[in-house]
Amino acid sequence: MSAPAAAQRVAGDLELLPAAEHPHLLPEAVRAALPEGAWTLEIDPGLADTQALVDAAHVPLDGSANCVVVAGKRDGEERVAACVVLASTRADVNGAVKKVLDVRKASFLPMDRAVEESGMEFGGITPVGLPGGWRVLVDTRVAGSEWVLIGSGVRRSKLVVRGADLAALPGAEVVDIAMTPPVAST
């Protein structure tokens, strides 16, 4: 079975494999929550960070997404969410995300907590297979993407899934939470 051309485009030079046929590349929680038709690809764990993979494998930045975990408090209650934005943007943590979570201040969840509570590896956290009760804030640009490359829960692989499938994950909300990073002056 070959991958659709649009899915292959976001994988750059890397070979796409049907995710359901390659469970050894995915943690159990991710395997259990895989959207139908998802693809995976094996990578060097040293290339798990988005920019490294973009540079090494000609993966398009606008076809890649990042998942960051944030938290904030309101009335003593902690509110945690995974935020999914295109790699060409950044999550507007203290603007849009703070507003959606209805908290006074939002910040990135400390790495050790994000890893422990998600059951995933740092640099590989994905919205697929997150713990129940976590909100998943999917930026509208991600939800509108035909296919997007995203972490797989481990650093040795990635997933390629439809944006609509991310928007349909348990706990997912499609919201405008991304801001385009400022252009560097030359």
TrEMBL record:
One of its GO terms (molecular function) is aminoacyl-tRNA ligase activity. InterPro entries: YbaK/aa-tRNA-synt-asso_dom_sf (IPR036754), YbaK/aa-tRNA-synth-assoc-dom (IPR007214). Residues 45-168 form the YbaK/aminoacyl-tRNA synthetase-associated domain. It comes from the Bacteria. Transmembrane segments: none annotated. This is YbaK/prolyl-tRNA synthetase associated region. The lineage of its organism: Bacteria, Bacillati, Actinomycetota, Actinomycetes, Kineosporiales.
